[in-house]
Amino acid sequence: MLSEQRRQGSKKNGQKKNPTPFPQGVSLLEQIEEQYAGQWVLVEETLWNKSGQPLAGRVIAHSQEKEAVVATGVQYRKQHPDVQLFLFYAGEKIPEGVVVLL
Length: 102
Description:
Order of helices and strands: HEHEEHE
Oligomer: single chain
Number of helices: 3
Shape: globular
Structural class: alpha+beta
Number of strands: 4
């Protein structure tokens, strides 16, 4: 009964439960890529796999214009020199019909 009251109290206060095991504002890169499809995204990395590749992070900036995101990243880096940043395009990497020769 106590837990039921707590749940109702949370709903009354407008509080949502965080559906992920991460702190608020941190998401898996797959989720970020879906949310910001077709945009450049700058992420502060917060979780890495054993190989050191980012798995999750906090979105710092996003835009269809890469230059705007890079400029934000430069300023953010000055204020937070110790964080790991990851810039990527959240969308189709190689357009359909394009052939890449290596």
